[in-house]
# Entry
Amino acid sequence: MAQALDIARWDLECEFNNTDHRTDLNGVNRLIVRRGQPFTVNLQLRSGEYQPGASSLACIVETGPHPSDQYGTRASFDLSANIDTSCWSAAVSSPPGNTVALSICSPPDAPIGRYTLTLGRSGRFEFILLFNPWCPGDVVYMDNEESLREYVLSQDGIIFRGSYKHLIPTPWNFGQFETGILDACLRILDMNPKYRRNPGKDCSGRRNPIYVSRVLSAMVNCNDDDNGVLYGRWTNDYDGGVSPMSWKGSVEILQNWDTNACKPVRYGQCWVFAAVACSVSRALGIPCRVVTNYLSAHDTNSNLVIERYIDQDGQPMQGSREMIWNYHCWVESWMTRPDLKSDFNGWQASDPTPQEKSEGVYCCGPIPVRAIKEGELMFKYDAPFVFAEVNADIITFMRNKDGSTGRVTTSTLVGQKISTKSVGKDTREDITHLYKYREGSDEERETFKKANHQNKLLQQQENQGLHLTIKVTSDMRKGCDFDVFAVVTNNTPIEKKCRLVFGSTSVSYNGILGENCGFKDLLNVELQPGAERRVPLRMNYSKYGGALTEDNLIRLAALLVDYATRDATLAVRNIVLENPEIKVRILGEPKENRKLAAEITLQNPLPDPLENCCFSIEGANLTGGHVLTERLGSAVKPGEDAKVKIYFTPTHSGLRKLVVDFDSNKLCHVKGYRNVIIGK
# Structure
């Protein structure tokens, strides 16, 4: 009969194990390992020696409040000759003696979370188990080391905002390895309503990244009164919280939620929701990236068509919840889909921004990106909604004063320049081709037929004779006066007389219109055959400056009506005004645990003084998980520099990103960053 080992002491070898499992950036003061990969525990025996084949050690591993063999949240096993990576197993890797090196391995489909491991009668310790994208047996396995560094280990990144004609890279501190963040991420799982209804079943579900991604999609927003992380707001009223533009990273958001009894953090918008979901996914071991879709459709009735109505001045008429967002951000997570055909493994889109309910809850996805491209709208989850975001048709009607309506020719196409950060670089990768075939191609037509998208096959009434576009200049900087142009071309053999309405309004990134910024109504535009007319509209800072939202966006709309045929053509273009550049100099030699200074400078581009000026910085392993702030004591006059020094002490070597924000009364939340290589 085998002799049970009597354990006196144990050493979890946290530094060795965490480094080996690529979790050491979480710290090495507790055991954090990845599933499907062995870890080592050193045991000191109280009496006797380990003898191969003659010694036994009963091992019990448990997770969740009600561990059960049925749910796979509890397992019992004994010593074996060798590690079996397909199930919970333990084997001794040291020679006979009273000191034992015990290797323990979890199966690659074990539920993630907090575990307790009991060894014999006296050994009992806790550890955290995460998804393992380095393990071929794990469904989140990714066979590319450079991609793994980007999508799992990188603590900072770039999120693209602005407009599809002028993409603006915004730095973000994901900070998934900062102190306390992993605990906050595990708490998010424990706060979800499915856990509270049936904790055993929920903890069992955590073996599946499809399930976990769907839980995160619901829990990053708080719209279901579920103690979610972020409260969304899309107006300029941010009382009781801060503007979504003020955030530079996920760390402060997750810390605030965790330390304030899981009360929703105010406020978020789409890129903030997506960034927090990306941080949590990476923390748990799921490869993840933030994606931006320009001219993104919000289809509320699943007919894959956005119907818009304008008045005779070309201005949108309110009433429909269906919108075209200037851009919209969601996340993609990497995993196989054993519930679908193997063609649909890889990137899966999910969206934590609360827009429409899915199975009674504000969540969306995950749906294979390939399913969107192929028009497979029957696949789980929420394929029609995501398909519409990148493919919906826009049909515009003009409502006349007598109540009648007429179709308006417009050339807006949704789903433009779908973007994410490149692997290992701060440049943009265009991934539009992963979501859709080229507009007008045979494959695109076939995709719409498969999607039963009959509206796409209806031919729009196109006026080939009169052509209308909006042209802009390159000097559209905030604080400047500049011109934009409506360009009308007569391609017919006869003279044309038209009405041209050319207007501008401030607009938020999700399509909500604000104040008028300039308007022109020309009742008698005459064009000879083949002639072109450029009609300027002056954009004066004195007019648009007070109307702008924090998005710095202006909607330009030109409406052309042919008096002879009554045909109407609409051209719409959103422009984004550039903020000034933030310049960052690092003073001192960048090394671990050595104090550095960031000298930060911004020139005031406005004709007005800037008051209440404040710079703030944060960066993973640079600012200790905190936001460091420096305020200016006096106003900054037009053309003058705002300049500060902020001191920080890096804690880890390697390439790090220092994210900077400038805020003031008239120039809000200007972003900048500086990459810093920290030496050992």
In short: Residues 442 and 495 are 37 Å apart (CA to CA).
